Amino acid sequence: MTIIHANHYLNQLLAPAELERIARLCKFCLRLRTITPWMMVTSLLRAFGGDTVAAIASLHQHFNGLQLIGAHQVSYKPFHNQLRKPAFAQFMKALVERAIALRIGQQVTEVAQGAFKQVLLQDGTSFAVHKRLATVFPGRFKTISPAAIECHMLMSLLEQNPDCMPLSADTASERQFLPDAKVLTGILLLADAGYISHAYFAEVNKAGGFYLVRGSKNLNPEILSVWRDDGRTVPKLTGMSLKEAGRRHCRAEVLDMDVRSGQYEYRLLRRWFAEEKRFCVWMTNLPRETWPAERVMRLYRCRWQVELLFKEWKSHNNLKGFVTGQQAIAEGLVWASLLSLVLKRRVAQTLMKEGLSMLKAAKSGVTWWLPILEAIAHRAISEIRERLEWAVDFLSKNARRTTQRKSIQNRTLEGVLIDVFS
User: Fold this and answer.
1) In this predicted structure, what is the pLDDT of residue 422?
2) How many beta carbons lie within 10 A of that of residue 422, not counting itself?
3) Residue 392: enclosing H or E segment and its boundaries?
4) Distance (Å, rounded) from C-alpha 35 to C-alpha 48?
5) Could you report the per-residue pLDDT of 252-300, keeping only the tens digit for each?
6) 290, HSE (Cβ side, Cα atoms, 13 Å)
7) Is 155 helix (H, G, I), strand (E, B) or coil?
8) Which percentage of the chain shows pLDDT scores above 90?
9) Are 39 and 380 in contact (CB under 8 A)?
10) How far, CA to CA in Å, does 87 sit from each of 30, 38, 259, 328?
11) Are residues 342 and 157 in contact, defined by beta-carbon separation less than 8 angstroms?
12) Which of 177, 200, 321, 358 is a Cys-bridge partner for 152, taking CB atoms 3.0 to 4.6 Å apart?
């Protein structure tokens, strides 16, 4: 059934008629020419999902490399003209949204059902683009690059895939890209320190949602009540500010506090890391009765999955700034790169339900993923199934997670999920 599901998913998304329909809706393709939408998309997926792509000329070479007839190959200029259309970015974004919306069987991890309806990870990653785009995408670090794009990723932890992603200039505030608090009912949001907003967290709490966010260095609320990790209270810290309550006042490694910042009250956890000689704090509204401090801190480890996704995206799906001053090309290629990431992850997860290493699957994309794309591009229907079957065998032997020592099993994603949601 896994091969059937994967084949059906790819056909729903990459069938020529479907791609032409979406291209016409986006006004990317009003008339069919030599460069058809489905050949364009499959060639871009082949380029981004394989080896390192050096330049737009490499994308052109991948397109011509898929042509079975020499007469179907095109020169660089008409290929480039397709990419520079304003509708190109809209077309690729529409495909990404459809790829995320389509589901392959049951994708929610069974162990996490019942704890939260969903666990969402929020973070951003940026990269430099051509300096001619500085007026559209101004960068924060002018000495490095005057122009940079930031991708604000909202990732589903349980599905291990992106949920949505706006693009912006690198100078844009991260907080404005947080999901609407009203849709977070029963959902847990994990985020880094750049997303702190007391007003937003109050709205999440009012909507029946949950948040767990790492605190920033300048966070300094008033302490209302304190508990040590052994359950004992520390009344002498009551009334102090967070920065006043240092190690000389209490030597406990972990403190669980109720605090107040202005009109907002919330729960704050603080842990002392002796080797690094620093505190780390987390803000949350998870109930203390069912989520003690150690359990909350283990849960926050899951946020690292979005960092691993960024690494996979940049290293194995060619997220980068290409040498172009055209906004449509710059944005469109970001969406094409994300489409490659989503499809590779979805298909690999479907073909190998358990024990899959996403990193190993991403690294070996040239071996198992590109043959599938070539069969799709050539509409070799029987070969698609054969290559999916071969991919199952390959991934099961070459992309399986390494068995972890028992002493560190609770640090893996599966170990944390089992420990937290059991």
Assistant:
1) 60
2) 8
3) helix 381-398
4) 18
5) 999 999 999 999 999 999 999 988 889 999 999 999 999 999 999 999 9
6) 8
7) strand
8) 76
9) no
10) 11, 15, 50, 7
11) no
12) 177
Bridge partners for 151 per DSSP: 125, 167
Residues 6+ apart with CB under 8 A from 81: none
Query: In 10 A of CB 248, how many CB atoms?
Result: 6
pLDDT digits (tens, 9 = 90+) for 116-174: 889 999 999 999 999 999 999 999 988 788 999 999 999 999 889 999 999 999 999 88
Structure tokens at 182: 């009203």
* Contact call for residues 321 and 130 (beta carbons, < 8 A): yes
CA distance 161 to 152: 14
* CA of residue 234 relative to chain centroid, distance: 40
Q: Quote the Cα angle for 369-371-373, to 5°.
A: 70
Amino acid at 149: I
Distances (CA, A) of 81 to 45, 56, 327, 413: 19, 12, 13, 44
Rounded to whole angstroms, how far apart are CA atoms 202 and 225?
19
Q: Is residue 108 predicted with pLDDT exceeding 50?
A: no
Element (H, E) at 359: helix 358-363
| SS3 label, residue 222 | strand
Strands 210-214 and 187-191: parallel
Q: What is the DSSP letter of 241?
A: B
**Cβ–Cβ under 8 Å, residues 321 and 127:** yes
- Residue type for position 133: L
Give the pLDDT confidence of 75-98 residue by residue, as tens digits.
999 999 999 999 999 999 999 999
> What totals of helices (H) and strands (E) does the chain contain, helices first?
14, 10
